[in-house]
Design brief:
heterodimer, A: mainly alpha, 30s Ribosomal Protein S18, 0% strand, globular, B: Alpha-Beta Plaits, 35% helix, 38% strand
Chain lengths: 73, 120
């Protein structure tokens, strides 16, 4: 059975390129642990999901969002 | 052919502002760019996780045009600088990224979505 189509939140707001410096937006697409949400849950189209995962990985490297949330070093 | 890059530097937050500006000017000098890079200071902010002993960093975002051949020397200087905790140089893709979606394409995509819904 096919799941109903979600509409891509980035296409809807006419975003052409997802900014890795925008930690507020990216924060909405990670789980409580800090994992990247799958497109099944984020609703993003393939193009935006690819951009999203790259952006999240860059933001993690720059310590804008955590790799693991709630982790004490 | 020069390309547009965007660099994010995270400086040690204990550095003086004057020292940070001096470092940025030195890095920009290595690029050999004709026009002055656009530099945006985000200032001191907390890191999402500690990097070594550091909990805070001074963020600076810079956009510049440079020849790709100038980058290795520039990145070497960044790597060797103790004041720079982390840096990231990326191609500034906003212009060359996703092709613009025209109104018709968008309408067609929405129509396709609607069709899919009907099949369920």
């Amino acid at each position: 059975m096919r799941r109903p189509q979600k509409s891509c939140p980035f296409c809807e707001s006419r975003v052409r390129w997802i900014d890795y410096k925008d930690d507020r937006t990216l924060g909405r697409f990670i789980t409580d642990q800090g994992k990247i949400l799958p497109s099944r849950l984020s609703g993003a189209c393939a193009r935006h999901q690819r951009q999203l995962s790259t952006a999240i990985k860059r933001a993690r490297f720059l310590a804008l969002i955590p790799y693991i949330r709630g982790h004490q070093a | 052919m020069p390309r547009t890059y965007e660099a994010v530097y995270i400086f040690d937050s204990t550095l003086e502002d004057a020292a940070i500006n001096e470092k940025i000017n030195r890095f920009n000098g290595l690029l050999g760019a004709k026009e002055q890079p656009e530099v945006a200071h985000w200032g001191r902010r907390q890191l999402a996780y500690s990097i070594g002993p550091r909990e805070n960093g001074y963020y600076v975002v810079s956009k510049f045009n440079a020849e790709p051949s100038a980058l290795p020397e520039y990145e070497r200087a960044l790597k060797l600088d103790d004041g720079v905790i982390r840096y990231l140089v990326t191609l500034h893709e906003h212009e060359v990224g996703a092709p613009p979606q025209s109104e018709e394409e968008l309408a067609a995509a929405t129509r396709r979505d609607d069709d899919d819904d009907d099949e369920d």
